[in-house]
Design goal:
The complex is a heterodimer of chains A (498) and B (119).
Chain A: E1 14-16, E2 19-21, E3 28-32, E4 39-44, H1 48-67, H2 70-86, H3 88-99, H4 103-127, E5 131-136, E6 139-147, E7 150-154, H5 160-173, E8 177-181, H6 188-197, E9 206-208, H7 213-222, E10 228-232, H8 235-248, E11 252-255, E12 261-264, H9 274-284, E13 299-303, H10 307-319, H11 339-354, E14 358-361, E15 380-383, H12 389-392, E16 399-405, H13 408-416, E17 420-421, E18 423-427, H14 431-440, E19 445-448, E20 463-464, E21 467-468, H15 475-479, E22 481-489
Parallel strand pairs in A: 7-8, 7-10, 8-9, 10-11, 12-13, 12-18, 13-16, 15-16, 18-19
Antiparallel strand pairs in A: 1-2, 3-4, 5-6, 6-22, 11-21, 14-15, 17-20
Chain B: E1 4-6, H1 8-21, E2 24-28, E3 38-42, E4 52-58, E5 61-66, H2 67-73, E6 76-84, E7 98-106, H3 109-116
Parallel strand pairs in B: 1-6, 2-5
Antiparallel strand pairs in B: 2-3, 4-5, 6-7
Classes of the chains: A alpha/beta (498), B alpha/beta (119).
InterPro entries (chain B): DUF779
Protein name (chain B): DUF779 domain-containing protein
Pfam families (chain B): DUF779
């Protein structure tokens, strides 16, 4: 079965104060599909004035929104989840068209998971409470959670609807108003969502502005009229965002990617059973979403005594990956999201080979038939050592670099020899390793005998240069709030100082 | 001998951006999404200190990289190039529908001795 390119309007507006509005300067940019380079629609090339209009709308809405009951906010979040579910196929085809990812992923992962994140935060906010402590017989300390006010959110292009659904629900549930800027490569899903939910929230509570980073992203991140910025992207922009926030003394949360190790101990090959089959799949998950995942398991570490046999199976499974038209439900790996990514990945394949990495499979662009019109890279396994640049830098493509290790100590040394600490995978049948190895890896998320699962209710965020903040979990609410401590005296008598 | 170079096509864009924005700097990014690519900003936009290594100048525009990253890159020679594309960072060329990218090659033995052993 195959889907086809969805229909779009000729142009779209920014969503500000509950309405779609044209950019004040009247400029638009063309959005194209990485599947075949075809035109999708025109989106606003917003400037500072557009961003300020959105921020003003959010500020005007915040006092009333803050006062809504958690019952009401939860009901609205649930309503968004229902709307996403009811329009599964439409969201999935738009997302596939915009990003290039395979339709089986958008149908089965991106869109249903997005709905679930809205529901998760709708339930969190109902179950959560502040705290009270009786400090002495006359004194009560009460902690009440209050929203920050207006939050700026800048989201990436690898999971456009899902990243939006990681960021918007906790901010709204906590009682904030939001100005969100989708990545300019993938503006469509956020726009479709605003069309569908235009009447759900009071005007100004959710605002979406489109445009380029230096023209629209920077004015949002540096505005003195917002109270926090949440960002997912790369390190230099992360640093700039923190720098701008420091001028306003605003809090930030940043998620900046990684170079995640996926570690396979020799016990995985003790039996040739369903679990080994799961491990092989776990190794091949580097190609999931074309490798455009912050936690792509892009460094594979395999114990030396099983290396040859294990890699034979991994290479065989990788070669069997179906890379084809992303609208076809049988396609497993689609197109890279943009031409510059496509070029960057090829540049890494080149330097990897120059540094002496051996190509076990793939290693080049896929230009078979119609694929030559889009940005397709063959799933690639490079064999080398951890000091090579391909082992240290996020390639953001379907490329894994594999190396051997001798024992637990060496596995940990290699796993932790990275600037980043977002994700990691550990695969073993050994009960001790199951606990001790994940504890010793310096990363915010360690998958144990699994990988690439992102359920709501499991906290996600980085160590080291991968940033900070913990999304997908109740604890994210505290990143969107401040704590009001009321210290109450029930003592009728004075202190006696004056 | 240099650590970094620029292609004629990229230089053309660089000159255009200098004309538009004045003094500029390059900073090499890492990490997710648009990471692992060079970003270009107005000179005073980014706070730099001793942790940013000055890799060289391209038509008078200094190119920096964070020290930690530099440790893994210093054995390679970099060439800044330009390609059609659309990044989502704050880099100034993005509105032009273009993106700076890096091509790398290993330093020759001679270059490596000159650039990395002298310090």
């Amino acid at each position: 079965m195959s889907y086809s390119k969805p229909k779009f309007k000729a142009s779209y507006g920014n969503f500000i104060n509950g309405k779609f509005v044209e950019p004040l300067g009247g400029d638009y940019f063309d959005n194209t599909s990485p599947i075949d380079g075809s035109h999708i629609a025109k989106y606003p090339r917003s400037q500072k004035e557009d961003v300020e209009m959105a921020i003003d709308a959010a500020n005007a809405a915040k006092d009333n929104w803050e006062k809504t009951s958690v019952t009401e906010r939860a009901a609205l979040l649930n309503k968004v989840a229902d709307i996403i579910d009811e329009n599964l196929e439409e969201f999935a085809t738009v997302e596939t068209c915009d990003n290039g990812k395979a339709i089986r992923e958008t149908l089965n992962a991106d869109v249903p998971l997005s709905a679930d994140h809205w529901r998760y935060f709708a339930s969190c906010i109902r179950a959560e409470e502040g705290s009270v402590a009786e400090l002495d017989e006359h004194t009560l300390s009460m902690n009440i959670k209050e929203p920050l006010g207006v939050v700026g959110q800048i989201i990436p292009w690898n999971f456009p609807l899902l990243m939006l659904s990681w960021k918007l629900p906790p901010a709204l549930a906590a009682g904030n108003c939001v100005v969100l800027k989708p990545a300019e490569q993938t503006p469509s899903a956020a726009t479709l969502l605003m069309e569908k939910i235009a009447d759900v929230f009071p005007p100004g509570v959710v605002n979406v502005i489109h445009g380029f980073g230096p023209e629209a992203g920077k004015p949002l991140a540096s505005s003195s009229k917002i109270d926090k910025v949440a960002f997912t992207g790369e390190t230099t922009t992360g640093q700039l965002i923190m720098q701008y926030a420091s001028k306003n003394l605003n809090p930030v949360t940043v998620e900046l990617g990684g170079k995640s190790p996926n570690v396979f101990f020799n016990s995985v090959m003790d039996e040739d059973d369903a679990f080994l089959d799961k491990c092989i799949e776990g190794a091949v998950l580097f190609a999931f979403n074309q490798g455009e995942v912050c936690t792509c398991p892009s460094r594979m570490l395999v114990q030396e005594d099983i290396y040859d046999k294990f890699m034979e199976r991994v290479v065989e499974r990788t070669k069997a990956i179906v890379q084809s038209n992303p609208y076809d439900v049988n396609t497993q790996v689609g197109a890279q999201a943009s031409n510059d990514q496509y070029e960057k990945i090829q540049s890494y394949l080149k330097i990897g080979k120059e540094e002496g990495a051996k190509t076990l499979c793939g290693g080049e662009a896929n230009k078979d038939g119609d694929l030559s019109k889009g940005h397709y890279i063959k799933p690639t396994i490079l064999e080398g050592h951890n000091k090579m640049r391909v082992f240290q830098e996020e390639i953001f493509g379907p490329v894994v670099c594999v190396t051997k290790f001798k024992d637990e100590a060496e596995a940990l040394e290699i796993a932790n020899d990275t600037l980043y600490g977002l994700g990691a995978g550990v695969w073993t049948r050994d009960a001790h390793q199951l606990y001790q190895i994940p504890r010793a890896i310096k990363a915010g998320r360690v998958w144990v005998n699994c990988y690439h699962a992102y359920p709501a209710h499991a906290a996600f965020g980085g160590y080291k240069k991968s940033g900070f903040g913990r999304e997908n979990h109740l604890m994210m609410l505290s990143h969107y709030r401040q704590n009001k401590n009321m210290l109450i005296s029930y003592d009728k008598n004075k202190l006696g100082f004056f | 001998m240099t650590r970094i170079d620029i292609t004629p096509e990229a230089l053309k864009v660089l000159k255009q951006l200098k004309h538009q924005h004045g003094e500029l700097i390059f900073h090499q990014s890492g990490g997710c999404c648009d990471g692992s690519s060079p970003m270009i900003f107005e000179k005073d936009d980014m706070y730099l200190d001793d942790s940013d290594i000055h890799m060289g100048d391209l038509d008078g525009v200094p190119f920096y990289m964070n020290q930690d990253q530099y440790e893994y890159w210093k054995h390679t020679h970099l060439t800044v190039d330009i390609t059609e594309g659309r990044g989502s960072s704050f880099s100034l060329e993005i509105p032009l529908g273009l993106r700076f990218i890096i091509h790398s090659r290993l330093l020759s033995k001679e270059e490596n001795t000159f650039l990395n052993d002298k310090s």
